[in-house]
Amino acid sequence: MSVTSSPEAPVTTVATLEPVVTAPASAEAAHEAAQAGSPAPTAHTEEVHGHGDEHASGGLPQFQTEHWAGQMVWLVILFTLLFILIAKIFAPRLRKAIDNRGFTIAEDLANARAIRDEAEAQAMAAASETAQAHAAARKLASDAKAKAAAELAAAQAAEDARLNAVLADSEARIRTARDEALSHVADIASETASALVEKLTGKAPTKAALSAAAKKA
Asked: pLDDT tens digits for 41-50?
């Protein structure tokens, strides 16, 4: 494949980044190229080969001092663009993400503290209600015990009164029966003595005699 170029057309090479002007090859070179069946070499081709030989002999272009100025310019441009991107886009986004994360953490901590305080308040309220319930239960038990004791004392007092009344009535009847029995003792003794005297003497004694004898006894 032949490479053709228009006369006097500027071409920029990769190695030098400098425009070069191609020139038609010499007549002898063109004639020799025509006889060999290959395209005629141009000045541009010779220039590229020449620079390629120079670079092959001199090493990498970035280590050659004649290319440092352009490299520094591009480095400054790239670092400037990178700094602008970081300062205007990435850093604000990162700062915003960090701020949002900090706000979220602070909000979560505040919610956790609020829940903890609410739980503690509920626990204290439950403990207070439990203590009040225990006190009410103790008071109710004490009142029930006192009421039961009072009712028992009243029932016992009533039963004691009833028993005392029954006992008093029994004692009164016993005394009445005793007195009545004692009142008949004299009559029984008088009758017995009269029967004995009558049996011994054959004559019944008088009541006056029996009374006098009873008094002497």
From this structure: 444 444 444 4
